[in-house]
Design brief:
This protein has 144 residues and is an alpha/beta fold. It has 7 helices and 5 strands. It has one domain: 5'-nuclease (Rossmann fold). Helix 3 runs antiparallel to helix 4 and helix 5 crosses helix 6 (100-111). The longest helix has 17 residues, at 58-74.
């Protein structure tokens, strides 16, 4: 199972450092790809920021969103964030000094019913990858 944090997932749709690795993981794997419901909002926000900075046009932004939604509905398992994940995220914030959304993403990955060694947490944030490994998850940083 591959659990994608948004920092890595955005590389699937916007060409940037790490895109090739993310594409290989998604296209070259038979593993289940999991994202949280938070990723939907985070992806939209990431593409909006790229548009605001003049990195992409409005048409490109909308095309990236369409590509994401099509693949998300056809290929990804979308995990809703529940109350237990919020409780776990609270602990991660206090213990590991994580930001809100990072703590929720990691809490979701740790909460999956599959044994943790079978979950690979794919994330482009070095610090979050380190904390995920400390939580017992296998990790993959597409920037390394």
């Amino acid at each position: 199972m591959l659990f994608f944090d948004t920092s890595a997932l955005v590389k699937r749709y916007a060409d940037e450092a790490g895109t090739e690795t993310v594409d290989q993981l998604v296209d070259g794997s038979e593993e289940t790809i999991v994202v949280t419901s938070l990723s939907v909002i985070e992806i939209a926000s990431a593409f909006r920021r790229k548009y605001n900075r003049g990195e992409i046009t409005e048409t490109q932004r909308d095309g990236l969103l369409v590509s994401f939604f099509e693949e998300a509905t056809d290929r990804f398992v979308l995990v809703p964030v529940d109350e237990q994940m919020f409780e776990n995220a609270f602990d991660l914030v206090l213990e590991d000094d994580l930001r809100t959304l990072d703590s929720l993403q990691l809490a979701a990955a740790v909460s999956l019913p599959t044994p943790n060694p079978e979950i690979t947490f794919v994330c482009a944030d070095k610090d979050l990858v380190e904390i995920a490994a400390h939580q017992g998850l296998s990790t993959n940083n597409p920037l390394v």
